[in-house]
Design a protein that fits this description.
With 327 residues, the protein is α/β, with parallel strands linked by helices. The protein is built from 12 helices and 12 strands.
Length: 327
Amino acid sequence: MIAFSLLLSAPTASAQTCKNRGELDTIYCDNDGDMLADTPTDPKKLRNPSMLLYGYTPTEDTALYEKLWQPYIDHMTSCTGKPTRFFKVHSAAATIEALRSGRIHVSQLSAGDTPFAVNIAGAQPFAIRGDAKGPAVYRLVLLVKKDSPFQAPKDLKDKRIAHVTPTSNSGNLAPRALFPAQGLTPDKDYKVLYSGKHDNSVAGVMSGDYDAAAVADDVWFRMIDRGMVKADDLRVIFRSKPFPPGSAVVVHDLLPELKKKIADCTINYRFTPELTAAFRGTADRHWPLDYKEDYDAVRAVAKASGEVFTREALAKRAAESAAGAKK
């Protein structure tokens, strides 16, 4: 709960006058209308750290992905001329708080966490993973056991359905926005059960703890590739339209020339064969990201689900997730 208390006790807005703030927290301005926190115009408020600290939103196996991303970290050290290190975090909220407080300078975030980081922590998304053809995508899928009687979402009323975390796009926000049209309304037709991670949700369906799980298909595919589940163990009874698979972000108050170097070094980097394989061949590089345009679908889903990307909402969702994990 430390991260959440820090988020809620963060300083209020400075005396700076904003022509536009949009949905950003009160300590940021968006005078250029790109939906991102503006880089400070006062040179004294710009940071040029001696070391770059890199975060990675906890996934199905954070330790594994730290190892897979290490060559990129080494590349950033040589390319930027600044030592670059991982900063280990254990939750999405902790990652966002670390960005806001300046303990992390660069991070990979999930699709659902990106808007929270933008609004709460002043993060500036600058890249999205993909391959030579363009940026990658993923879809929300609703999984059930292959031999279960369920054929459509509406068949799951009063059943045990796993969501992932409150801030997850595919694991919570998208189901809340999209399932009602399929005859299944979260918190009305079933009680939402948070598993904490996508792989926990999938494993829970396999073990019988859950009747179904709403997860990101790319995570499920990686679990198949790693032998954690078999491709035919589960069935898909709902599949959404595509979403962006997360983002690479930088904090807003770094020196502009340093931010440009970080972006250039990231986009020019080519993934190792091992990292590409971890993404099932769908990603071997980063592409430039336009948050206002490329995240429109994620924001639309959040709006439809009633989500707002504020400090209070993040703290509330995190508390709900923690309470659910104890049950």
